[in-house]
Description:
423 residues, alpha+beta, Creatine Kinase, Chain A, domain 2, single chain, 9-stranded antiparallel sheet, globular
Amino acid sequence: MDNGRLHYAHMGATVNEHHLESLMRFISQGQKPHEEYAYGIEIEHLPVSNTSDHAVDLYSTPGVEDFLREIAPYFDPHRETWERGHLLGVNREGLDVSLEPGGQIETAIGPAKDTEEIDRIYKQFRELADPVMSRLGFRLVNYGYQPHTTCDVVKILPTGRYTSLNEYFGRIGSYGIPMMRCSASTQVSIDFSSERDCITKMRLGCAVGPLLAWFFRNSPYFEGRENPLPLLRQEMWDNLDPQRTGLVPGLYEDGFGWEDYAADILSTPLLVADLQSTPEYEGSHQVFTAWRQNAGEIYPDRMLNDAEVSHILSTHFNDVRLKNFLEFRHWDSLPMERALKLVEIVGRLFYDDAEIDRLSHFFSGLAATDVIAAKAMLQSDSAQARPYGRSMEEWRDFLGLTEDDLAHDVPGDTQRPGVFQTV
């Protein structure tokens, strides 16, 4: 390991050479030629009661698990997710439906070649899901945060992972409990062709993501009141856990590559250890809190399998997360018609070589402090902000956005007119 380059690993931490090689191999497997590029999209939905507009969770009667049980016959019975006697996810080719910590219902679609395929798969899901939810007395809404319910009311899913995360995030930062229980996001995933292409897209994604988050913001409420922040999701994640959120350390420095990324991941405490795919620990307590131990102190000294690597990578929540694809994590939950526009914009900016060159030219010499300053400016000045020295009107034109793409700060449940009562 080149200790000259890997200077962002945590002081005194052990980075196992086999594990480092395992992460780099896993990431490299994501390289694709341009003609094989695809998209992934995850949309977290907030289940709310039709009568009160308050949150519906696992323990509601009926609740989100009742919903999953009713739609399960339409999915692959061999790909269900169960834990502690609860059905927590169903899956079929191209579509995964699962529960997030506070009972948010996530639909993960992909890989899909274009927005038409995403739209088709999602419409099939809603045609199945909406009548079921109507019978159960609740519906799905797309906001960045629950419109009426406060986080102390929502109960966490009783899984090993979420129990550990709940305890950890309840002790660190400012927003761990609200984020887990009441927030919802839209995440878009894209492909890369090489290490250089990957790092370029990570850097540009971190720079552009907050701008798109402002144009697509969708969190009118927070903890039962009107939300005063232009970028609530950014506020929550930027003040959560600096070990594993925000910008990847060293991302904008010369020479940064996959080895640096992997070393940072491996030197950070795992937060939660998952040994369900580790043969050496069969029969032991396989999911447990690991606040002080990193991967090298828990996993065997050997090459890791893909399930182990996937779990380790999942314990970091950077603005742009690298797996064997790139996951952009900036955005509030959006109704599908707006989410599709977001995917189209991401595709135009990151799958067109001319656009990548244009963005790279503009952001040449960018430093991490510039991105942090831009995020702070958007948060403090909103429409009057001038991130990276340009007005929001200039950024709208630069990014090729139309009037229909823009967010509208109008409180109220536009997803079900006439029912939601404004606070």
